[in-house]
Design a protein that fits this description.
Chlorophyll a 4 binds at residue 86. GO terms for molecular function: chlorophyll binding. The light-harvesting complex (LHC) functions as a light receptor, it captures and delivers excitation energy to photosystems with which it is closely associated. The N and C termini lie far apart (96 Å). By secondary structure, this protein is an all-alpha fold. The protein has helices at 41-73, 84-91, 97-120, 132-135, 152-155, 165-196, 200-209, 248-259, 262-273. The protein folds into 2 domains: 1-38, no CATH class; 41-196, Chlorophyll a-b binding protein (Orthogonal Bundle), CATH 1.10.3460.
Length: 274
Amino acid sequence: MVAAADRPLWFPGNKEAVPDYLDGSLVGDHGFDPLGLGSSPEQLSWNVHAEIFHGRLAMTGVAGILLTSLLHKGGADVPEWYEAGRVYLDRNPNVSFGALLFSTIVLSGFVEFKRLNDIRNPGSQGSGILPEDFKGVGGPQGRTVGGPYVGGRFFDPMGLCRGSPEQTLKYKWNEIRNGRLAMMAFLGFAAQYAATGKGPIDNLIDHVSDPFHTTFVYNGVSVPFISHWSQAPPPASPGRRAYQPVSQQNLQQLRLFESGPLKSREQHDSQHIH
């Protein structure tokens, strides 16, 4: 257990804001629970499982979004993440969306049901016809760490968690930190697409090409009360004349002037001189 006084807190210098049930014994515990969502032991245990689970999903999703965006930008026949479902159904018209949704719910529901029972009764899902390695209870170490951390050769083929307890604890901290970062990144990807209709790689390229005007301020969504800035053209550079668009009427007169005889041009010039 890590003493509360020796750990970094989310609000440095304000130990009174740390609830008693966050004593530093949990991985990723910085004393943050201003709403008291983990005040009961049962709810705290559920929140721990939920955070790790969603962090793992977010890390997988963010990696997939970045990879497909890079491949798409490189010319590969890979859709962007926000078009993947539609493109798959368009390319496979014989696949029913209802059947795809039903099979996903059934398969995911089975796994989630097993996971829920294991949370309520740890170790209860470690028996049955499946091999022990697949259930995360086999291998030299087995499932000795408990909770959402599983062992065995199937879930830990490289044996990263079979070493010292200090190394295992370090990996747990790395996972929860990267999971939290990935959850925030996924939220940012979704917000970027809602504001710009583009993926993270395209948004990054647009920002690098014009870092002073391609920001969250100018997307017309993030800062609504100055959304009109996004419609205004960027200011002219110092020492340069701002570009003024030519109207259709002036353009037509210019073409007639250029195509007319030389005499009419001279008369036109003399009229302007006099």
